[in-house]
Amino acid sequence: NELGFSLTTASIGLVTLMMASASNTSSALAITQEGSEFVLLKTAPADSTNMAWAKIFFNLTFSTIMIVLSFVVVTIFCDRLTDLGTVWCLCGGTILVNASLILWSFELDIKNPSLREYASSNDATAIKNVSTSIRIGLVMSFVYAVIVVLGLYLWGGLIAKLLILGFPVLLLGVRFFFFWNYLKYVFPRIEY
What we know:
The structure is a single chain. By secondary structure, this protein is mainly α. Helix content is 79%, strand content 0%. The longest helix is centred in the N-terminal third of the chain and has 29 residues, at 49-77. The protein is elongated.
């Protein structure tokens, strides 16, 4: 039935997105983990924002591979999923939401780096950017799952696919705008 398909499809996206967003803690510590070496990074003749983009690219590449592999496994072993177009649309949406969460997590560390605390203890467990990143990831995973269920159950077809991809595109646009501005205006002023 339609509700069963909607819930099954949304739960696939939810579980995959929750696993991927758990790896975003590395983005929430991207600057903090530089510790006292961040001063050296800032004095380098190259553009120091390249470090930020490199860390984002690495996290995005790893998590995208994990998301795609998860969806491949699901499509192989769940023979009752008949609408594979919607499932792969959800895969694309999940990748976009995850990209948004990576930017959001990195933005947390730009706004509130804990360079001294990490340099003195090398312990990231007490740094609040990590817990905030995890909370945001969990909440956004559930929000996206609800959007998927409502889209598939209430409308289905093309409208559901537009919601499944439209919300992540909008979220990524907003998160990219904020991240870009924090990287441009706040990142250069971070000091140890």
